[in-house]
Write a structure and sequence with these properties.
The complex is a heterodimer of chains A (85) and B (278). Chain A is of the alpha+beta class and 85 residues long. Chain A has 2 helices and 4 strands, in the order E-H-E-E-H-E. Chain A has one domain: Alpha-Beta Plaits (2-Layer Sandwich), CATH 3.30.70. Helices cover 12% and strands 16% of the residues of chain A. In chain B, strands 2-1-3-4-6-5-8-7 form an 8-stranded mixed beta sheet, sandwiched between helices. Chain B is of the alpha/beta class. Chain B has helices at 7-12, 28-42, 78-88, 100-106, 108-117, 162-168, 182-194, 211-214, 220-230, 234-237, 262-277, and strands at 49-53, 69-72, 93-99, 122-127, 173-178, 199-204, 231-233, 249-256. The chains are: A alpha+beta (85), B alpha/beta (278). Chains A and B meet through helix 1, helix 2 and strand 4 of A and helix 1, helix 2, helix 9 and strand 7 of B.
């Protein structure tokens, strides 16, 4: 299972940005109840075991705030899917 | 948790730049990653690049973030600076990343002539459809009829189709994508970085803070949803009539061909003339 990490300090918030909540095909992201020092509410990831490893969140995040790490053996659980139109 | 860092951030950005300069939800950040991913996938080094940008929100894409040679130049003139860099150091991969107000409005003349000359630089034009940094004024790329700060009752002017302009000026590589297509941007950038001629990539990007607010188009997500819904690939668009293409964004690689490149021609000319002298 891929590991998804939210780097909360550099996140600019689900309320103002929230691109991760839109691009995740499994809709795993939602607003957390925390707030970072800049006053933004970073996302939380629920049901991470449902992550398909598509890396959309990492690729779309405008602030380098999401890192998707591959499986322990270095492979993605699912092949990267080309987003189209 | 703090030990984990974004691999592209770690490898290609300056350590002392702690935060990106973009507003929340801005498309510039998506483009930053798309550029760095293209460099990473090609296995190139940042020392092979010189990034040139002008004035505006999108000019903050390479400067000061990228750990490479970056030139932050005067308003509208990044292509003029980049032409100088390329002719002086033809071995460098010179990349201009700037906005529509910078490259298409004030610097429009530089853009069309760089395309005509086929100088071997890559131009990334981030089109957010408005003058965002100065407060949401009407730009040449603002769609007709929307309300802006300077046109509170709707704009009366037609929108500038920049990719078609550059195509008509003779650029050998022209592509247009939106920020909903970061993987495709990376793929086009890889072609641009490895090709010799003038490469132009227009990226339609969301500006939730100015464009979204003054034109009442909504949040970053609303704009991304619009890009997802209304983008049409160029192959499909060629078969459609202009009426049904209204309000759609035609995306894809418009042209990819080989033409004689200016800096190579200059080097050749110099060698020929010097040979005659000795």
């Amino acid at each position: 299972m891929p590991t998804v990490t939210v780097l909360e300090q550099s996140c600019k918030g689900v309320e103002d940005c929230g691109i991760c909540t839109f691009v995740c095909p499994a809709s795993l992201f939602s607003a957390s109840e925390k707030m970072n020092t800049a006053g933004y509410v970073p996302p939380q990831i629920l049901n991470q075991e449902k992550c398909t490893g598509c890396r959309n969140c990492m690729i779309y995040c405008p602030d380098f705030s999401i890192v998707v790490q591959k499986n322990a053996d270095g492979s993605n659980s699912v092949e990267e899917k080309e987003e189209d139109e | 948790m703090s030990e984990i860092m974004h691999p592209l951030r770690m490898k290609y950005t300056r350590e002392h730049v702690k935060k990106t300069t973009n507003c929340p939800g801005c498309g510039n950040g998506i483009i930053v990653q798309a550029i760095l991913r293209a460099i990473d996938e090609l296995g190139m080094d940042m020392d092979e690049f010189a990034f040139v940008s002008g004035i505006g929100c999108s000019a903050w894409i390479p400067s000061p973030l990228f750990n490479a040679d970056t030139l932050h130049t005067t308003h509208g003139r990044p292509i003029a600076f980049a032409t100088g860099v390329k002719l002086g150091k033809p071995e460098l991969n010179v990349v201009v990343a700037s906005g529509d107000g910078d490259l298409a409005a004030i610097g429009g003349n530089h853009l069309i002539h760089a395309a005509r000359r086929n100088i071997g630089i890559t131009v990334i034009l981030v089109n957010n459809g408005i003058y965002a940094m100065t407060g949401g004024q009407t730009a040449p790329t603002t769609p007709r009829g929307v309300n802006t700060t300077t046109n509170p009752y709707g704009t009366l002017e037609s929108v500038f189709d920049i990719s078609s302009l550059v195509l008509a000026a003779g650029a050998p590589f022209v592509a247009r994508w939106t920020t909903y297509h970061p993987r495709q941007i990376t793929s086009s950038l890889k072609k641009a970085f490895t090709s010799r001629g003038f490469s132009f990539i227009e990226i339609i990007s969301q500006c939730p803070v100015q464009y979204g607010k003054v034109t009442k188009s909504g949040s970053a997500l609303d704009l991304l949803k619009h890009y997802k819904k209304d983008s049409i690939k160029i192959d499909k668009a060629r078969t459609m009539d202009p009426e049904s293409l209204k309000g759609k964004i035609v995306v894809g690689e418009f042209v990819n061909e080989q033409k004689p490149e200016l800096s190579a021609e200059w080097t050749e000319l110099k060698a020929r003339v010097m040979e005659g002298r000795s």
